[in-house]
Design a protein that fits this description.
Elements (H helix, E strand, L loop, with lengths): L1 E3 L5 E5 L2 E2 L2 E3 L2 E4 L5 E5 L5 E2 L2 E3 L2 E4 L5 E4 L1 E2 L2 E3 L2 E4 L4 E3 L7 E3 L2 E4 L5 E3 L8 E3 L2 E3 L7 E3 L7 E4 L6 E3 L6 E5 L3 E5 L3
Parallel strand pairs: 1-5, 2-6, 3-7, 4-8, 5-9, 6-10, 7-11, 8-12, 9-13, 10-14, 12-15, 13-16, 14-17, 15-18, 16-19, 17-20, 18-21, 20-22, 21-23
Antiparallel strand pairs: 23-24
């Protein structure tokens, strides 16, 4: 499937949502995130699969997840003008692996909230704007996020007290900023 929009191409909002499959697409957006999950209040999007997509967002974010849990984001290529992969409030226990996050004007990965916890980032390729970060954690308290075999050239981590884990399968693990 191929789609283009000046706004979000895939926009999931409102009430709870389960088992959305977004697979093998070429998606181009501009003003809003190309794939945008933003659930309201206590609603949660569970068990989603966003895999093997080419996502181009000339002016904004590639993927933005809010209140998304137990989901897989795998094998995607994101080319964006702003932050490529964004994960926000109450997004937990997600597997983010083997993606290419390339941002010409922002961060490659941005974690927005202290309730963004227990996510697993493995073997992603990160490219950010020279003045931005491959990994940008906006709020302290973002506990339990794992970065496995993940080359991170530059990063920004706000505050103190976040429990983050960086692991190289060949050399060991570092537990970072453990309170």
């Amino acid at each position: 499937y191929s789609a283009s929009s000046p706004f979000s191409v895939i926009y999931i909002t409102g009430s709870s949502s389960e088992s959305n499959d977004i697979i093998d697409n070429t998606l181009t957006g501009r003003i809003k995130p190309t794939i945008y999950f933003i659930l309201d209040g206590t609603n949660i999007a569970r068990n989603n699969n966003i895999s093997n997509n080419i996502i181009i967002s000339t002016d904004y974010r590639g993927i933005h997840l809010t209140r998304v849990v137990n989901s897989t984001i795998k094998g995607n290529t994101l080319e964006t003008g702003s932050s490529a992969f964004n994960i926000n409030t109450n997004s937990t226990n997600n597997m983010i692996e083997n993606n290419v996050f390339n941002s010409s004007g922002g961060d490659a990965i941005k974690l927005w909230a202290s309730t963004t916890q227990n996510n697993n980032f493995t073997n992603n390729t990160l490219m950010s704007s020279p003045s931005m970060s491959d990994l940008n954690i906006i709020k302290a308290g973002s506990h339990g996020n794992y970065f496995i075999n993940q080359l991170i050239n530059n990063y920004s981590i706000a505050g103190s007290g976040s429990k983050l884990y960086f692991k190289n399968s060949d050399y060991g693990e570092i537990r970072f900023l453990e309170a």
